[in-house]
Amino acid sequence: MRLGGRIAAAVEVIEDMDARRRPVADALKDWGLAHRFAGSGDRAAIGNLVYDVLRRRRSLGWRMGAEDAASLVFGTLLDGGRDAGGLAGELEGDRFAPALPPEERIERFLTADVEWAPAAVQADVPDWLVEPLRAALGEEWIEEARAFSARPPLDMRANRLKSSREAVLAALAPFGAAPTPIAPQGLRIPPIEGEGRHPNVQVEGAFQTGLFEIQDEGSQIAAELCGARPGEAVLDYCAGAGGKTLALAAAMGGEGAVHAFDSDRQRLAPIWERLNRAGAANVTVHSPRDDLSPLADAMDRVVVDAPCTGAGTWRRRPDAKWRLGEKQLLRRQEEQDNVLDAACRFVRPGGHLFYVTCSLLRAENAERVEAFLARHTGFALLDARLLWADRFPQAGPRYLAEEIGEGAVLTLTPRRTGTDGFFFAALERRG
Ligand SMILES: C[S@@+](CC[C@H](N)C(=O)[O-])C[C@H]1O[C@@H](n2cnc3c(N)ncnc32)[C@H](O)[C@@H]1O
């Protein structure tokens, strides 16, 4: 495909996604099925254009003075280093190419200073999120929010049960993988540049034989902070496909017991194959109908990686930023309270409960912890900054911390920790 066809395809996908209010991944997949002639390079380039627009659609529209999909796609191309004259030349005679925006719009786009735009435009978020983000991210919330508009890296975790970070680094050397700065087993391939795409590391022998997993460094950090040790009994109450379960099992060196539970069998389904590949033999998977009562009051650690809005993953799922609404946020809060109430009864006296989300919003994070503490006086909040200092002494305090009573909770962000947004709180059941 030539550039004009790729631009037209990106416009079609964005319009389809908007018209049918559906996830961008579905719209891209449908486009691919209907255009089987498109090669993998075309698909990657179209995907990049679409995702780049979605990450910054508000500021692109403001600068262009137009919000139609074609204007936004041209905006990302201009930001990507193409000049208007070059683009016009490249698209000349290309019958698939949408018309370039008029010259005065391009001029406006190139000279507009987003610092003069309303705060929500600068931050590239919907208006209603201004106050929640300010409350969560503090004075520098606009810079923090902007960092969610960047392309993300591809992060992986070396599986200590089968390999080492050094060995996996050697296996992934052709892809430019390097150690991540904080998590001890993390590896990173930098964000995509230009029209490229990340290598499909899942077809590598090292992946197929379980030497590493794909996992954002923020998720690795959250699992590390749970501090699971060999020989302990740990319940991962919202195990889903097992990202944290696998990290916990590896941290325990395969010794002790990890119980993985989820209320949704569909979400849990991939865990079996992943456990197998990783050689995580000390994990018992419990499906929704299982009787968990034998585990009550018996777990050293219970991890609640709660269902949330995913507001911390906007770099990877930028369409979610524009779809998120107040109703969804309220629904998630109710689920979070319920899941914490259900999970806490498994913590043994003196044991620990960890609350993790991949959201930034206080309503899903600190406020849920405060509400939990008010309902459960037998639990006390720990100072998670101390856990961080113990686990990552070299990293320094890069997180955002909020003090609640005598304890403190942590938020990781792309700007501070270079990870997806994650929230972490640790509570202790009084002995
Ligand atoms: C953020 S995801 C978990 C991701 C997973 N821990 C990982 O690291 O890959 C949240 C999970 O919570 C599960 N969930 C939602 N409500 C639940 C409940 N009441 N009890 C247990 N699990 C629940 C969802 O099915 C979903 O899989």
TrEMBL record:
Signal peptide (from-to): none
Pfam families attached to this UniProt entry: Methyltr_RsmB-F (PF01189), RsmF-B_ferredox (PF22458)
Enzyme Commission no: 2.1.1.-
Presence of the UniProt keyword Methyltransferase in the record: yes
Keywords: Methyltransferase, RNA-binding, S-adenosyl-L-methionine, Transferase
Residue stretches making up the SAM-dependent MTase RsmB/NOP-type domain: 144-430
One of the record's GO molecular function terms: methyltransferase activity
InterPro entries, A to Z: MeTrfase_RsmB-F_NOP2_cat (IPR049560), MeTrfase_RsmB-F_NOP2_dom (IPR001678), RCMT (IPR023267), RsmB-like_ferredoxin (IPR054728), SAM-dependent_MTases_sf (IPR029063)
Catalytic residue positions: 358 (nucleophile)
GO biological-process terms attached to the record: methylation
Gene3D superfamilies per UniProt: Sun protein, domain 3, Vaccinia Virus protein VP39
UniProt superkingdom: Bacteria
Binding site residues for S-adenosyl-L-methionine: 262, 305
Family as reported in the entry's similarity comment: Belongs to the class I-like SAM-binding methyltransferase superfamily. RsmB/NOP family.
Protein name as it appears in the record: RsmB/NOP family class I SAM-dependent RNA methyltransferase
